Each structure stands twice: as C-alpha cells, then as structure tokens.
Amino acid sequence: MTGPGYAVIDLETTGIHPGRHERIVEIGVVHLSPQGHVTGCWETLVNPQRDLGPQRIHGIAAAEVLRAPRFEQISGELAELLMGRVIVAHNLRFDAGFLAAEFARCEVTPPISHELGLCTMTLARRYLPGAGRSLADCCAAFGISIDNAHRAIDDAAAAAHLLAGYLDLDPQSLTWSQALADASSLPWPRVQHPRATWCPRGHARREEEHFLTRLVERMPDPCTPELHSAYLAILDQALLDRHISVTEADALVAVAQELNIGRTAARELHTLYVRELAKAAWADGVITDDERHDLLMVADMLGLANHEVDTILETERTSPSKPTLYHGSFHLEPGDLVVFTGDMSRPRSEWESAAAAAGLQPHGAVTKKVKLLVAADPDSQSGKARKARDYSIPVITETAFGRMLDSITQLPA
C-alpha cells in the first residue's frame, strides 16, 4: 500500500471543529499514481461512540455505526494507506485537523497537517481562477460528477479526479515532484492497535436479520411467569415509540438469553403480547382502522404475519376476555423531566418549548429522575443515550414524542 503517489482523503464528521468532542464517522481514501491514475479505493464507517451530529447532511444512521470499527481499530491500516504518499483533500486543513486529532487519541503523532500535503481547494486559486471554492464548483469546471455528495468515498473520488485535472493542466510543475519527494521522506510512527474489518456504508446498510432469528432453538423451557413478565416488560418499553431500534433489539436478545428464553418461547410471548393488545382494543367493542394498523405494525416488528393478527382479532371478538397484562402503562404527567439529544429535524428549542407548554420540564442532563429521553436517532450513542439506557429510561424518537404531546394536550383540564 505504501509507495510514491497521492492519498486523496475525505471525511464525514460529527461537527466542524476537531476539538475534544467532535469525531470522524466515515473515511474515504483514494490512491493516485504520480501521473494521476486511480490505483485503489478504501472506505469505512467509524463508530464515534457519541451522537452523529448533522445526520441530515451526511445521511448516516446510528444503527449503521453500531457495529462499525472505532478509529483506533482502523488506525493501523489507515496509516499504511497514507504513509509515503502525499495526503490530499479538498480543504485539507479541515481533514488533516480531524485525522491528527483522532490519531492523537490513539497516542500516535503521524506527520499529518495542512502544511504537509496538497489542498485541491487552495490549488483552485491557481488553476481555476474565478471558479467557486466548493468541491462541486471545482469539479463542475472539469465536468466531474459527484454521485453521492457527502459520502466520503464519493467525495474523495471527486477530489482525486480534480487533482488529476490539475496534473493534466500543469504536468511539469515543481509542486508535484516536490510534494512527492517530501512525502516519501516523512517518518511515520508504528501504529500498534487491534485491527478490525473496515465497514463501508453500503455493507452496514444491509438488512438486519430479525432479532427473533438470533435466539437459539431450545426445548420447551420451564421459564416461570415472572421471567416471562421480565421479558415482556423490556418488550413493552422497546415498543413505546412503535420502533425497535438496533440497540433495543440487541437488548431483547440479551435479556432472552439471560432468562433462557429460546426462539419458540419468545415467539409465544410475542403472540401473547399482540393478543393482549387486541383484548385492550376490543374493550369498547370496536376495532378502529388506527387500532388495526397499530396491531399489524407491532406484529410485524415481532415477527408475526398479518393473518395471525386477523386470527387473534377474530378470537378476541368471539371470545372476549379482559387483558391480563397492561400495555401502554407508560405515560407522561405534568412535571415529568424530559431530556433531548442529537441534531433533530426541528430545533431543540422548539421541542423544549412544546414540552414546557404541555407541562413537562425540559432537562439538560440524564439522572434517575428523568422520565424520558427524546433522541434524534433512537440508536444514538451519545453520553445522554448511554446513561438513559443504564437507568432503563425509555429512548424514543421525536416523532413518537410529538404523538405523546398530542395526547397530553387532548386530556381534559
């Protein structure tokens, strides 16, 4: 991987300043020969172990990075991809700053800075006078298309083609030969960290298997009703916002394994859960379209087919009985503390104002007294989200919170 040439990089990050809290969430690297020919491409998501910042810009979901490697786990291979090569980026000051900060967290100080590489944005002043400075503007001048802007490997590839365009315009410039000579002589430290497989965005987005299939088949287990109730309680909390996040699915699998609940028993409990919801829905003698939609949605998340829901509804219609399990016991009351985390679709101040108008108390930190955490992404790995899960505080989406606020405001005064 080492040798003369260029390593063109692009990063997606949680913020704009490589300070203490902002982290890299995706890396793209493209190798160019000294003549500007592409010789290799690499990419990976990076688990920043915090919230992902402006997800509406980079489009990365927290579920995608949960199983992605941490930076220190890819730092060794990344160093091998960069050493001996001229590091290039569009706005190198930004990318070099983040890389240097991440390596510093690994207690490694490689020769990475905006002064030790080439910046295609800065070079545009020489080769594209009058053009804009954005990557899109510079690429447009050469007719270079960017397939997926704000995906690291696509932006890195665009910057690589841009550099190749500069090389074609001025092949005899001493800028290139001097940069190549300097890069080949820079000393790189050894990076000794456990390695993990790189995880490209497309690979991470493959459809997750249903969490029920991750449970082992067991003989009918003698699990007591109390243990079944413990599993159902976790299930009820996970379904509070009618969305089972990857984190919640992992928790359900862990609880089932801890309680020795196998796949068959879990499926029976899921059927019981839907049956109890159906009983509650029939309490007034009518199943509305919204109630049926809710039952079908829950059943789908629990691995039950639509026809099974129809059977359950018909059984409870003809042989009605009172629910023996109480679903939906969670509800917000005036004075409850609610915490928000992540870069939401609506400004956080608006959500806090709406919560306050409903009689809730927006709070800045997660404590055991907090009733609910509202997250921009329910799989968020922010400190607040991790603490909420430690305290068994529900983590829900902002959409679900909006529905809860509607139910509060509809209550009689």
UniProtKB/TrEMBL annotation:
Keywords: Exonuclease, Hydrolase, Nuclease, Nucleotidyltransferase, Transferase. It is an enzyme of class 2 (transferase). The keyword Transmembrane helix does not apply. SMART domains: EXOIII (SM00479). One of its GO terms (cellular component) is cytosol. One of its GO terms (biological process) is DNA replication. GO terms for molecular function: 3'-5' exonuclease activity; DNA binding; DNA-directed DNA polymerase activity. CDD domains: DEDDh (cd06127), terB_like (cd07177). InterPro entries: BRCT_dom_sf, DnaQ, Ribonucl_H, RNaseH-like_sf, RNaseH_sf, TerB-like. It holds the Pfam family RNase_T. Its EC number is 2.7.7.7. Residues 5-172 form the Exonuclease domain. PANTHER family: DNA POLYMERASE III SUBUNIT EPSILON, PROTEIN NEN2. This is DNA polymerase-3 subunit epsilon.
